[in-house]
Amino acid sequence: MIKKAPSKKIYSTDLGIDLESKEENELFKWFLACLLFGRPIQQGVAKKTYFEFIKESLTSPEAILQAGWDKLVKILDRGHYIRYDYSTATKLLEVCQTLKEKYGTLANLINTSQNFKDLQNRLLEFKGIGPVTTEILLRDLKLHKVI
C-alpha cells in the first residue's frame, strides 16, 4: 500500500498576501487563491495558476470580469489548471459578478456579515463556492484578525 504524503496547508503569507492590511486588493487576492485551491487539484498547480493571475494583474472582480472567459481559460491553461479550465473560468466570472452585484466588494461582504457563521453562510450561497473553499478562506481571515 502506497502512503500519500500529507498535503501542507496553504496560507496567504505563502503567496505574499498581506491580509493584516485589510486592503480590498489583498482580501480579493486571497479570495481568488482560495477559489483556485478549493478545487481538487495539486497545490503546485493552483499556486502556479494564482501567480499567472497576478502576472496579468487580475486581482479584482472588475479585472476578472473585463478579462472575459477566453482570457481566463488561457491563464488557467498556462498554470496547467487544464482539467478544470473551462469550469473554473465560468465559476470565476459568476462569483465575481455575484460579489459585485450583491456586496460591491469583498470587504463589504465581510463587514456586513453579522458574525462568523453569517459570513460562512453568505459565502456558501455563491454558486461554485463550497465548504473547502470557504474553510480555506475563513481560516486565514480569522488567523490574521480580519474577522
Give the secondary structure arrangement, pairings included.
Blueprint (H helix, E strand, L loop, with lengths): L23 H14 L5 H13 L5 H18 L6 H18 L3 H7 L3 H10 L5 H13 L4
Question: What does it look like?
Answer:
- The protein is mainly alpha-helical.
- It has one domain: Orthogonal Bundle (Endonuclease III, domain 1), CATH 1.10.340.30.
- Helix content is 63%, strand content 0%.
- It contains 7 helices and no strands.
- It has helices spanning 24-37, 43-55, 61-78, 85-102, 106-112, 116-125, 131-143.
- Helix 3 (61-78) packs antiparallel against helix 4 (85-102) and helix 6 (116-125) packs antiparallel against helix 7.
- The chain is globular, with a radius of gyration of 15 Å.
- The termini are far apart.
- Mean pLDDT is 93; it is low at 1-6.
